[in-house]
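User: I'll paste a sequence; please echo it back and then give the predicted structure.

Assistant: Echoing your sequence first, then the prediction.
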Amino acid sequence: MQLSAVFFTLDSIVVDGTEKPGASALFGALDARGVVSAVLANSPSEPTRTLLETLGLIPHALVGTNGDRKPIPAPDLLFRACEVLAVPPWEVLLVDSSDAGRQAAASAGCLFAGMNTSGAFTIGGLEEVVGIVDGAGPSR
């Protein structure tokens, strides 16, 4: 199985308005591997975009609850990010630290990496995401 994309909930890469350790390095490592990234926000996109730009965290896509998209645990944000990035959900890894994220990933057919929570993968920090991507096989 190969991974074409890694999606992050905002809480998995930012805490209290500050980048979590390793977030910017992770975006760079994914880019180097040809793996696209998205940030999913359970709020409108614009304030999140401003925060991410301020922190220098620039994913390939940012998807918020704009319009009629329902927040996680609904799979709406995942499906929209897949549509924007032209990747099938079964080639996506969602990184989050909540049961709601695990539920959204299951509903969308994505893999789930739980930060300090159970999932297909359980990780202690963002630095472990690259190992999952590398172990999944070549990207497109």
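The chain has one domain: 5-135. The two ends are 12 Å apart (CA to CA).
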